[in-house]
Amino acid sequence: MSTERVVGVGAGAAGFDPAYERGGTGAGSELATSDMVLNIGPQHPATHGVLRLRLTLDGERIVGCEPIIGYMHRGAEKLFEVRDYRQIIVLANRHDWLSAFSNELGVVHAVERMMGLEVPVRAVWLRTLLAELNRVLNHLMFLGSYPLELGAITPVFYAFRERETIQAVMEELSGGRMHYMFNRVGGLKEDLPYGWLGRAAAASAAVRSRLPDIEELILGNEIFRARTVGVGKLAPELVAQYGVSGPIARASGVDADLRRDEPYLAYGELQDVLRVVTRPEGDCFARFSVLLDQVKVSLDLVDACLDKLSTLPAGPVNVRLPKILKVPEGQTYAWTESPLGINGYYLVSRGDKTPWRLKLRSASFNNISALPALLPGTMIPDMIAILGSMFFVVGDIDK
Predict the structure, then answer these.
(1) Mind telling me which InterPro entries this protein's record contains (predicted)?
(2) How far apart are the C-alpha atoms of 35 and 290, rounded to whole Å?
(3) How many H helices and E strands in the chain?
């Protein structure tokens, strides 16, 4: 009787384990073969952090995939329940550390809706501007790191140059580089520093002028195309079944974007600028090119917000709140189009100063859930290309 071999890659490698016994027959062969179980992770350069994939292989072809998550689980949803509505913002911006400002938005939207708060117009436009700058930062990280996983080291230096350009104005405004903690229930922490709009406009123009360097460097590379074109095709049916959203869904031809379909913030007034980028192919190359084009759209939205803010008169950016903030009894669901997809926040209040329940629906969890249906039939090297193109943050999966 043949035995299944269990091989570990990365931390916690199990090696061969004869305890797993199962007979198998290789495809197209009458010879008895044995499936091999390969552990990718939980800590491995190809997994964006502590994610573990348990692959079942027939030779070098993947026949089964089981994502094993939870290595970064912090119990954030339970921590929400023992902190007041001001304190939970600092927890909410950490599950996707590349999208901190966008993460904060969902929480404050839910609380503001429950309290019936009307956010000042100046704060609404500022939030829209900062959300798009944060989207650019998120996408630039993946535009640089994805080619790195396929063996190209140069693009990450270009992408980080652009990230630093945007980070400089974000840090000047909020005081933080990653966890901005700039949203408040009812608006924003404070108004803009003197001359900040001009510096933000200059940063946007600089990034826009240098994006063609990244585009030419990567999209014109024949090796990159060979590794991504036609690889990891995600059908629209799977997108719907697994709740995949954001750039990954749009790269499979799913024309959906909450900024257009259910406008929030100032997106309702930006419909002539907002362009939803889609691709029909659904492969790794399409997902990458959608991300690149979305950076251009976000920069268009940034410029439109800057123009609007330059014409708005001086005014408040938040509303005055009581010292002890209590949310009326009830429930609501607020969702936003975060950089990686749809983030949803289900808030239940019993009239206290802390949430009774705050359930988080993160984009990365659903995006990675499609892997068991996407990976079977592919080769091991293609798995690296597919995994990197699913654009997830492990903290956003585990919460």
Answers:
(1) NADH_Q_OxRdtase_suD, NADH_UbQ_OxRdtase_49kDa_CS, NDH1_su_D/H, NiFe-Hase_large
(2) 36
(3) 15, 13
For residue 175, what are the domain limits?
Answer: 76-397
- Number of domains observed in the structure of the chain: 1
Query: What local confidence, expressed as pLDDT, does residue 32 receive?
Result: 62
Cα torsion at 96, 97, 101, 107 (round to 10°)? Answer: 40
328: CB partners within 8 A, 6+ apart:
114, 115, 349, 351
The Cβ-side half-sphere exposure at 151, using a 13 Å CA radius, reads 10
- Angle among Cα 358, 88, 102 to the nearest 5 degrees reads 85
User: What is the rounded distance in angstroms from the CA atom of residue 109 to the CA atom of residue 213?
Assistant: 37
pLDDT at 93: 85
Axis-axis angle for helices 154-174, 121-149 (nearest 10): 160
Q: Does residue 60 belong to any structural domain of this protein?
A: no
Closest Cα to residue 166, out of 129, 219, 192? 129
> What distance in Å separates the CA atoms of residue 382 and residue 278, rounded to the nearest whole number?
23
Q: CB count, 10 Å around CB of 228?
A: 27
Any domain includes 7: no
Q: How many CA atoms lie within 13 A of 251 on its CB side?
A: 30
Residue 187 belongs to domain with CATH number = 1.10.645.10
The residue type at 51: L
pLDDT tens sequence across 43-85 = 655 555 688 889 999 888 999 999 988 888 888 899 999 999 9
Gap between the Cα atoms of 354 and 79, Å rounded: 10
Cβ proximity of 62 and 32 under 8 Å = no
Q: How many CB atoms lie within 10 A of CB 116?
A: 7
Contact criterion met (CB below 8 Å) for 334 and 110: yes
362 in any annotated domain: yes
User: Residue 239 phi/psi, 5° resolution?
Assistant: -55, -45
* pLDDT (average), residues 293-301: 97
Q: How many CB atoms are located within 10 Å of the residue 268 CB?
A: 12
- Residue 218 · residue 152 · CB < 8 Å: yes
Give the model confidence (pLDDT) of 226-250 as tens digits.
999 999 999 999 999 999 999 999 9
Report the DSSP pairing between strands 61-68 and 52-58: antiparallel
Are 71 and 52 in contact by the 8 Å Cβ rule? The answer is: yes
Q: Which of 342, 343, 347 is nearest to 359 (CA)?
A: 347
Inside any domain, residue 13: no
pTM: 0.88
CA dist., res. 141 & res. 61, Å (int): 30
